[in-house]
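note to self: dont lose this again. the chain is below, predicted strucutre after it. 893 aa total, dont forget to put it in the shared folder this time
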Amino acid sequence: MFLVLSTTFYTPRVSCSKIDIPNYNKHCASVVPESTPNDVPEITTIPFAAKQGGYFLGGEDILNHPNSSRYHYPTSNRRELFIHTHSVYSTDVDDVFKVEASLILRTSDMEFYVYDDRSPRGGLSFEVKGFWSISTGKLCMVGSGSTYSEEGKHVVLAALLKLDEVRKSSTISSLVRGILESSSTAGDSGYFNPISLLMIPQNNYEFTEVGKALDHVCSGGIGVPKNLSLSLKLSTRICNAFSRWHTFFKLEYSSGCKSTSSCNPFGEGVGYLPQIMSLKLIQCLEDKRRLRFLIEFHNSSYVDYYHPFTPNTTLVAEGSWDVNKNQLCVVGCRILNSANSFNKSHIEDCSVRLSFRFPAVWSIRNTSGMMGHIWSNKRENDPGYFNTIMFRSHENFVAGIPGSKYQYTVVDKARKSCPEKQPGKNEGKRHPDANSNDMEFDMVVRDSKRRRIGWGYSQPIAVGDQISRRNDFVISSSSRAAYSPVDGKTNHSIPLNISYGMSFQLNGSTSVQVFSEGIYDAETGKLCMVGCRYPDSNSRISDNDSMDCTILINVQFPPVDSNDYIQGTIENTGEKSDPLFSEPLSFSAVSFYGQHSRESIWRMDLEIIMSLISNTLVCVFVGYQVLYVKKHPAVFPFISLLMLLVLTLGRMIPLMLNFEALFVPKESRTTFLRRSGGWVEANEVIVRVITMVAFLLQFRLLQLVWSARFADGKQKAFLAAEKRTLYLSLPLYISGGLIAVYVNWRNNKVGDGMEYAYSSAYQRSLWVDLRSYGGLVLDGFLFPQILLNIFHNSTENALSCFFYIGTTFVRLLPHAYDLYRAYYYVEDFDGSYMYADPGGDYYSTAWDVIIPLVGLLFAAIVYLQQRFGGRCFMPKRFKELEGYEKVPVASDA
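---
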């Protein structure tokens, strides 16, 4: 008996723990021998961090399908990989672990392609399993992925993944190299060429370079007084300042510097002198103020967010915040790599130093939120030495560190050059506030003969001494206190000092960038400035005195409630013999935000009207049904309580969830309210009142049916049909809710698979998905009534046609409007909706067709049931079941 029981319980346990991986020994036995894994997953020893990324070379034969897209961007081809470790198990061998993971390959082209249904949207994924040896650092895994051929056939890709230098911990010199191969035979449909892989490991990283004394690590370079840079307060997160995926910097070389080894940080071998530097954050330790970067250098003045990864012009770096100098001290190491493979890539020569700081004072010669310099700690005659390079954040990027002030240097010249204030036709009208988004505009540039010769854009840099809050990356609240009050009213008794950045292209090739200072009078809408520019806008040099400040700019803003264009002139007041002299230019513009504001206000006005009409119609339809049931009390038992409960909750929940949240947030709608003359604000109250009336009428109808159902003891027999309706409907509603939760979880899981910088774009709130599902239930409000009619099998006209057809129309109208909105409106920057809120129902082209069709089908079924019987559309054998007939009531007479 003991032997039998031992065999019974022991044998399955052995078979469960010994999990055979198909074809593993065939491909990986010589790399990491297969071992017997334990049952309990490992949580302390893992090969990769949770968000491990990297890069790859190759894969064209399985990733690029010309027939899968409508658009092609050949210049953008950044190839990234992501490894998601699912499970790790220890084995009977001490340093060997079983690993289960997903490998995702993705190119930047996938961000732009419009894929058909056969193509992978989030990249090509491989599910792999294998074993990892800590002592050798090798990881070998087998598995498969799938894709579609150019002919549309499904293709299984059997794969073999081999990685080297996978260690428990890593330092700045650590690299994980590997290869993804096809385990199929060449010529098979699933065969693909080998793909080379490279990763910067993140697991248990040790800051070996900046862990030393920073005064020694970052010695040399250009010394900057501490008071010229902003300090980093404990309440300010350093990770936020450097985690932006579009942190680009313009490089400024010393005068006369060309592509020589003394200027180029990578020597003459790269073949070009880099113009742009970008940061890619790998890791950040907020408590210790330490960060890891990939610092990439590009051969273009155009900032491409999806540039290819080039190891030979990339630094692996780690940095630490130096409180004694108010700067980030960074050590950079070069990656040595062959052109066609990552197999021999390695890191060496950590002689590059960088410093990043946040200037405390901005001026017309310094309009950057972040700046610094690059230098070599080698001697001048040593290989790898280069001259110091300055850099500034691209396009006046504001990093989010509060405290910066603007110092004007040429504003007095602007006051003298600008014409005196004179009354004009727009005197007394309301013009854009100096801090409003209407001050930013795109423009069309014309010559003296009114011929269009270029286009550009203009945006404020500072208003008064406060840096303009022109994007979401500024977290300072002080900049809003003086010039952007909550009530939207600003004191314009005197013209305000203002600074602008203006960039435009002439004749399709010549790029001009002008920085200007001047005064703005909000009473007249006049802006007058003196502009300065560098002799070479594409390659700025470090000599700030080279700026040419002989440009006079005049701009006339129209009133905020006007459809007129912004008009302006650009004149050069210098000598005609000056090489930088140019003929007068003029420009016209529509405020970038103002144009969208007008579109949004028109859309909001339309949505207010539709909301008012819809809620008013609901009041009429429900009110009519209330009168109908009072006139015909015999129909009470034949009205579904569950249907009325769904409709009542649909009216009550928006009132409970602070209905104001469905409108534009107060902070972002200031411009809208000023432009709309209070229309939005006034009608918000009207919409709330009508919604409340609709809810009260709906609740009254529910109360009447409920009271009548339980008032007469004879009518309790009808509760059986109601219970059947509930027992059938409730599981369906719950199942649909669980599906919505699963889809949300699935989508967020896919979002986590993307690089962390993009992951937030793929995340969707569970509450939003549940609200949308609730809207779907409300769209099908007739479903419980249809079931009740089936169980009653009566021809009683329980619902008036005016009620159920009218309510169906009100529920379907938002979907028709959504189709109109998708066709006629661009995506709104404010994200506000007063009607057909995407967070309150399912809206897409497919849903906007399916939901109306199903709603009309339900209405047609109810009509037939009330005319021919509840089971009129069912097979004959089901029509003969018990039914409910109206019993004559004897009169008192």
